Amino acid sequence: MAELSKAAYVFPGQGSQSVGMGLDLYKSHHPAKEVFDEADASLGFSLSRLCFEGPDEELTKTHNVQPAILVVSIACLKALENAAIADFPSPAFVAGHSLGEYTALVAAGALGLADAVLLVRERGRLMYEAGLKNPGSMLAVIGLDEETVKDVCLQSRTEISNINCPGQIVVSGAVQALAEASKLAKTRGARAVISLKVSGAFHSALMEPVIAEFARIVSEVRFRLSAIPVISNVTARPLTDVDSIKKELVKQLRNCIQWQGSVEYMMHNGVATFYEIGPGRVLSGLIRRINSELQVFNVAGIEDIAQLAGK
Prior knowledge:
By secondary structure, this protein is an alpha/beta fold. Helix content is about 50%, strand content about 15%.
């Protein structure tokens, strides 16, 4: 394993949102305000107001929350850069969880912000539509190993959709199949089985009805070679060229998110410090469970930036 001295920036996915997110950044850092203004202009409505004021039921709609989290995360990154903290480490890698992978691509210079917000809004719309065509949901299974969860999925006709950290695996499937998976997981000794508040069975075969349309949309977006290695959700390895980025984003919609593998890859390539940039603290908790010796910092607002600056 490489000597641990590098840093990585990681970006959260859907579920990290809260009404009011990003308002302190908007008021305090002009580059962050510019991010919100550009996103509003690109989308043709005030996403910023939705982030700052809600209502919550509107913010949490899949086609709204995906661009919202991306924009707040990039605004946070721009505010962090604007703070010009002495000796603050540049990232050796960037990565994001599901939706957060798009934020990572923006941070790495592979995808423009205006294109990114339009793309993830379309992604959210299609994911919601897939959920209407093939009703399903997701369950977090706590306390079982991967092989046991695979067996549960085989018996219940569900799929592993996220491998987040040791002892936390998410399963996707049709509603009745998930009910069976929940019973089986509890029988096999799961400490908890938690239903996720999502509009469909994301990262599973139930997303198939929208894959072709999403592939067409992705094909029309301009990507560039990233300036920083972006770790793939699907393979847990760096994306090496524009073609692999496009293929990744389409595969990611119906394939398992390898978050534990992504963190372990970065760790084995010298990363000792992770900065979770954006709303919430979900990834920080997962990274600590993957390896408790890793340093993890949250950057969700101006208080976190001030703390990092030692003020």
